[in-house]
Amino acid sequence: MTENTRIPPRFRAPSALTWVLVVGFAAFFIQGVVASEISFDRLVRGASNLVRFIGQAVPPDFARAPNIADAMWETLNIAVVGVTFGCLFSIPLALLAARNTAPNAVVRTVARFVISVSRTIPDLIWALIFVVTVGLGPLAGILAIIMDTIGFAARFYSERFEEVQKGPSEALTSTGAGRLSVIFGAILPESFASMTATSLFSVEKAIRSAVTLGLVGAGGIGVELSTAMRLFRYDQAAAIILVILVVVVVFEQISSSIRKRII
Amino acid sequence: MTSAICCTELRVSYGQLEVLRGVTFDIPVGQGVVLLGANGCGKSTLMRSLNGLEKLQSGRILIHGDSLADASRGELRRIRRGMGYVFQQFNLVPQLSAFQNVLLGAMGRHRFGLLSCLGMTASAQERARAMACLERVGMADRAQHRPSQLSGGQQQRVAIARMLMQAPKVVIADEPIASLDPKAGREVLDLLWQIVREEGLSMLCTLHQLDLAREYADRIIGMKAGQVAIDAAIADTDPVQLNALYTGMTRVDAKGEEDAA
After folding, report:
1. For residues B130 and B119, what is the distance between their CA atoms, to the nearest angstrom?
2. Are A91 and A152 spatial neighbours (Cβ–Cβ below 8 Å)?
3. Which among A59, A80, A142, B26 is most buried, taking Cβ atoms within 10 Å?
4. Structure pTM?
């Protein structure tokens, strides 16, 4: 070791920016705690209300099982139809948004903008918008799921397209093949496994959001759930929640086992 | 007779770095030329620019008399169609079978590109042709295998079959055996030159083995630091001259004598 190599200090003063961020966050946090009036008293009352809710919810009332089944079926319809269209629309959008497949920078910027708008707006807000535009019911739900899926799937597809090896595409380009042929002959096959995995994730995500879309009137089991809650029929609500739980878990299992096989 | 490849004063730069510094040569139809040169001397850039994958700064490339530089998109595709390219890394599409990869070689020939070249939709004639190409490189029994199930040598054979499927007149082979072991490399090189000779194709092939170069080539072009240093018929080259390609200032990105060792 030479004279001028020094052991690094144990502690270094944080930069001004770090100080600003830490103090700013702490202030915001404390203000939040104060503003939401978290008090021991309210938590205790909340706990006793929860016990009362559970008391009324058990045993769950499955008397309306046929209606619940219908609504659940509608939810699955919304999810599957929405996610299928969403994934289909995502492919061209993703091709336009990926650096190596976009025809030019303008188109790419526009496509990326469309994708990020559909991602940034939450699914419930899409549902509210479509309930206003196409009316109550499953169509609004489907449209909301399509937008939500595009925001998710198109982004991941396009990132995948950008990651493919350049070699095979160059090889096909060098045979005199056109741009589209190269995209469909090399880039899509290379991305196929990852796209399938992304699409299955979208299905899982779509089922979870389709459940809640009914809360704003966009069809599906959420409508049943919000009605039961408003009528204080917690036993019926419990039955609905149980059904949702089972269906979502089953779908996630199926989808993850398919994903494991593909990758 | 027009030459297969005619390059005049090619210059290519990446930013400040001049990679090709006035490369001129001419390959007559039917000649097999080996391009030698140390790593980083500009060989690959030269090969890529012959196919229009790299933009020229100045100079002119004629492929069978057609100029690459002022070709429209359609013309460029037509020129590429006549030029087979064999890559060091094979560049097969990993998710597709050997058969499908070979079929893709015909894409440039068809108006509907890919649609006429899918295993499902290709004409019986093209399918038979693809199979014949695989047979010619000795890979017919592996038609349904994916590239990952094949050895490096076998993958390069499939890539050669794809090149055959394309039915080119000129072949560019960019270090076709550099990622293969000596035995597989020798077999692939035998096959490649045999096909080139039988079909009467013109070829420009880069190699790193001087002995193989002397064995196969009609003529040797040696590059050093972005310029042609040797251009001679095989009989007129001697090992001392060839070895000189690999000593001293060989790289295009060398700053001074001390970096270039």
Report:
1. 10
2. no
3. A142
4. 0.81
- Which of B195-210 are b and which e, b meaning 16 or more Cβ less than 10 Å from the residue's Cβ? bbeeeebbbbbbbebb
Closest approach of chain B CAs to the CA of A25, in angstroms? 45
Instruction: Say yes or no: A100 contacts chain B, CB-CB below 8 A.
Output: no
Query: What token pair was written down for A207?
Result: 């089922």
pLDDT in tens, B171-205: 999 999 988 898 999 999 999 999 999 999 999 99
Strand extents, DSSP E, A214-253:
none
- Residue B154's pLDDT is what? 93
Cα distance between residue A197 and residue B78, in whole Å: 38
| Chain B nearest-CA residue for A184 | B114
DSSP category for residue B96: S
The pair of three-digit structure tokens given for residue A180, joined into one six-digit string: 């589209």
- Contact between A202 and A149 under an 8 Å Cβ cutoff? The reply is yes
The residue among A111, A107, A183, A189 whose CA lies nearest residue A151 is A111
Q: What is the DSSP letter of B221?
A: E
Q: Nearest residue on chain A to B107, judged by CA atoms?
A: A177
Q: Which residue of A has its CA nearest to B114?
A: A181
**What is the end-to-end Cα distance of chain A in Å, rounded?**
50
At residue B115, the pLDDT reads: 76
What average pLDDT does this structure show over A118-131? Answer: 92
User: Which positions in chain A touch B117 (Cβ < 8 Å)?
Assistant: 181, 185
Q: Cα B216–B222–B226 angle (5° rounding)?
A: 145
Alpha carbon distance B227, B245 (integer Å): 11
B80 contacts A167? CB cut-off 8 A: no
Contacts of A173 in chain B (CB under 8 A): 53, 80
DSSP bridge partners of B220: B34, B232
